[in-house]
Amino acid sequence: MTKSRERVSKAKPGAAVTRPRAPKLPPTISRAALMVDGTDMLVRRITHQHFVLSSLLETVRSGFASLVGLSTFQYVLMQAVGRLTDKQQWTVRSTAREMHVTDAYASVEIADLVEQGYLAKVVNPDDRRVSFLELTDKGVSSLSAIAPIQQIVNDALYGHLDSNSALTYSNELSVLISRAESAISVLNDVAADQREAALRQPTKRRRRTTAR
């Protein structure tokens, strides 16, 4: 059998390169304020940039987590417990809400960190059914050990910001997170309506064929 070979055409020097025509697709937004020159290109560019940025940041977080020998989620959780104590008292439930995971998933990951000696559970004296999370000496020393590497990497990542622009950026991210939560709620509602509509549609019965 002979394998078919794909022909590669080389453009001649100075010849115009013809780009493939982009398909005519309906816009993904309806707000006129976000339409530029009658298209949704700006929003599509922002959405694509978010996708690329989230992938790059995940690579950075994964790299930091590997230095401690933890999963990315466990690394982020330990940083939150150790450094964001002014935000809230960290419990299994508050962790799940903040990280947008289920209580069961958060409970399993936290239990693993407790078993490895990175986290400890401290019983709330006002409600003994609830335990607060805190770093152990091992957790503190582990995060402290990688801090010099974090400084170099984060200086490269956030080097374009100062305190004012960083605060503005943080506030905008908070708004965007809230808007994303609303968008997910809308998406779930629309998907549920479509499922209900599909279930209401009568299904065509197939005719039975008899063997002859």
Short description:
The protein is mainly alpha-helical and 212 residues long. Helices cover 57% and strands 7% of the residues.
Can you describe what's shown?
By secondary structure, the chain is mainly α. The chain is 57% helix and 7% strand. The chain has six helices and two strands. It has helices at residues 41-68, 72-83, 92-99, 103-116, 137-157, 163-200; strands at 119-124, 127-135. The chain has a two-stranded antiparallel sheet with strand order 1-2. Strand 1 and strand 2 form a beta hairpin. Helix 1 packs across helix 2 and helix 3 packs across helix 4 (103-116). The chain starts with 40 loop residues before the first helix and ends in a 12-residue tail after the last helix.
Characteristic key phrases:
HTH_MarR-typ; WH_DNA-bd_sf; disordered N terminus; 7% strand; WH-like_DNA-bd_sf; two-stranded antiparallel sheet; mainly alpha; 6 helices; MarR family winged helix-turn-helix transcriptional regulator
Topology order in helix (H) and strand (E) letters:
HHHHEEHH
Radius of gyration: 26 Å
Tally of alpha and pi helices: 6
| Termini Cα gap | 42 Å
Please give the number of β-strands.
2
In round numbers, the mean pLDDT is: 87
Largest sheet: 2 strands, antiparallel
Low-confidence stretches: 1-6
Overall shape: it is extended
Helix content: 55-70%
Assembly annotation: single chain
Instruction: State the strand order across the main sheet.
Output: 1-2
Helical/strand content category:
mainly alpha
- Strand-residue proportion: 5-15%
